[in-house]
Amino acid sequence: MDVRDPEPLGGHPGWPSRLGPLRTPAGEVALRPVRLGDARAWSAIRIRDEQYLTPWEPTPYGGWARRNSAVEWPGRWYLLRAAARRGSTLPYAITVDGRLAGHVMVGNVVREPLLSGYVGYWCDSRLSGKGVTTAAVALVVDHCFRAVRLHRLEATVRPENVASLRVLAKLGFRHEGVLLRYLDVDGAWRDHHSYAITAEELPAGGLAGRLVRQGRASH
Ligand SMILES: CC(C)(COP(=O)(O)OP(=O)(O)OC[C@H]1O[C@@H](n2cnc3c(N)ncnc32)[C@H](O)[C@@H]1OP(=O)(O)O)[C@@H](O)C(=O)NCCC(=O)NCCS
Fold first, then answer.
1. CA gyration radius for the chain?
2. Which of 13, 122, 166, 215 is most buried when burial is the number of CB atoms within 10 A of its CB?
3. Would you say the CB of residue 157 lies under 6 angstroms from ligand 1?
């Protein structure tokens, strides 16, 4: 029989927390809660990477520049912090050698009986293809299946997003189906593939441990 400790009522275990580091070809990848002081670095990356990010992110009504300006960040950060304190999200900044490099967020966290959430991420284009996001998602999945005590994580990706599909494949997310007209991205309702992983699929040593064994990252 599977005897688990009871779920802490109203709790949000595992938050706030710092995860990593994992060494990748780009540098040392670590996760920490997003900060009010991230405004300028966050905005600088997002404004520079508009072309890189817009095909995959929710349509920025009001305009990309406005929605990603440094003055926009405090309001966003405040909402994220409030949701994180309630336990419905885990909003992490990805840092590489201590500098902001992107975000990996667990959203829509639902506790008993589902114990589930979704994972979303983006990364600075200057660091692309060096394993940063794969390492970051591995750290967050391991944490969610351990300290946060979730059971299922899902990720949804446009079929055209080869880089993101590759991240999920490297980590062992399973394809579950196609969600038609799922999300308003880049100005239209776009189909997405749905991927998931459950706690039973976590290898010994976690996803981060497997990346290390595969030579994709090191401690
Ligand atoms: C998707 C994204 C987060 C990946 O970040 P990243 O740090 O470059 O990811 P990783 O380096 O860990 O892995 C990317 C993999 O995709 C591969 N890849 C990237 N572009 C590719 C392309 N055009 N064709 C084929 N493979 C590609 C890389 O080679 C790498 O695989 P490998 O390790 O087998 O070589 C980043 O591209 C991004 O921020 N994109 C825009 C936002 C976005 O798509 N977010 C996710 C929405 S679901």
1. 17
2. 122
3. yes
Which two structure tokens, joined as six digits, stand for 188? 């239209």
Coil/strand/helix, residue 145: helix
Rounded to two decimals, the pTM is 0.97
Residue 1 has pLDDT above 60, yes or no: no
Assess whether the C-beta atom of 65 lies below 6 angstroms from ligand 1.
Answer: no
5 lies in a domain? no
- Ligand 1 neighbour 195 (Cβ under 6 A): no
Which residue range forms the structural domain that includes residue 188? 19-213
- Any domain includes 4: no
CATH code at position 56:
3.40.630.30
pLDDT at 93 over 70: yes
CA of 134 to the centre of ligand 1 (A): 8
- For 147-197, how does the pLDDT look when each residue is reduced to its tens digit (9 = 90+)? 999 999 999 999 999 999 999 999 999 999 999 999 999 999 999 999 999
Residue with tokens 């890189």: 52
Number of domains in the chain: 1
**Would you give the DSSP letter of residue 37?**
G
In the chain, the amino acid numbered 16 is: P
- The preferred substitution site among 166, 170, 185, 214 for testing ligand 1, maximizing ligand atoms within 8 Å of CB, is 166
Residue 58 has pLDDT above 70, yes or no: yes
In a domain, residue 133? The reply is yes
Distance of CA 90 to the CA centre of its chain: 9
Check pLDDT > 50 for residue 25.
yes
Query: Is residue 110 domain-resident?
Result: yes
